[in-house]
Structure prediction request, 217 residues.
Amino acid sequence: MSLSLYGYWRSSASYRVRIALNLKGLDFEYIPVHLLKEGGQQRKDNYKLLNPSMLVPSLVDINTGLTLTQSLAIIEYLDEQYPTNIQLIPKNIEDRARIRSLSQDLACDVQPLANLRVLQTLKLKFSAQDDDTKAWAKDWITRGLSAFEVQAQTCSGNYAYKDSVSMLDACLVPQIYSAVRFGVNMDEFPITKSIYERCIALPAFADAAPEKQIDAE
Ligand SMILES: N[C@@H](CCC(=O)N[C@@H](CS)C(=O)NCC(=O)O)C(=O)O
Prediction:
């Protein structure tokens, strides 16, 4: 097996990459990094060598000797390095740009605000309580999904971008998993919810689900 994915079952960025690997039908070894145990295994020296940002996921490709962090860069790399009949980023320039832009809306402008280290810092340095950090995460995710719902009116088809599964679905599904965890009512976003339901019915998404991973608790 030439691909190793360091991840955590409930990490949405790891979940994105698992979906992409499954959609492309690529075999990979999954190496759990527990984000809470031992003060967070992502902060241990051996993992920091792989990923100095102390975040998951990291992908190691033994074929090419490449170690990559950043889920979107990993997904694009897999798509380009391992062409299969499933293309996560289409060839058409406008479609590629749109998919990247919408994916970044979720992965760059929404998910980071509800990331573990942000919530931990709100508690440690700004005296936030559990309820405050949950409300914080719910608020930012709600804003992000409200914007996505508007975009989906024109960009979605059967899936998040038109009628083929793409990198955008790999970003959207984990974001919704996290939304539900923080108490967002998905009925407020009917188009987004229907895309989510269509995606999770596909084996590639179902097998990537947090609860299906070897480190799930
Ligand atoms: N932009 C990064 C985000 C990675 C990220 O935020 N990972 C989270 C889990 S989803 C993490 O490792 N959190 C650990 C921490 O906050 O200490 C990517 O897309 O790969």
In short: The domain at 93-204 is CATH 1.20.1050.10 (Glutathione S-transferase Yfyf (Class Pi); Chain A, domain 2). The chain has two domains: 3-86, 93-204. Residues 11-13, 35, 40, 42, 55-57, 70-72, 107, 115-117 surround glutathione (CB under 6 Å).
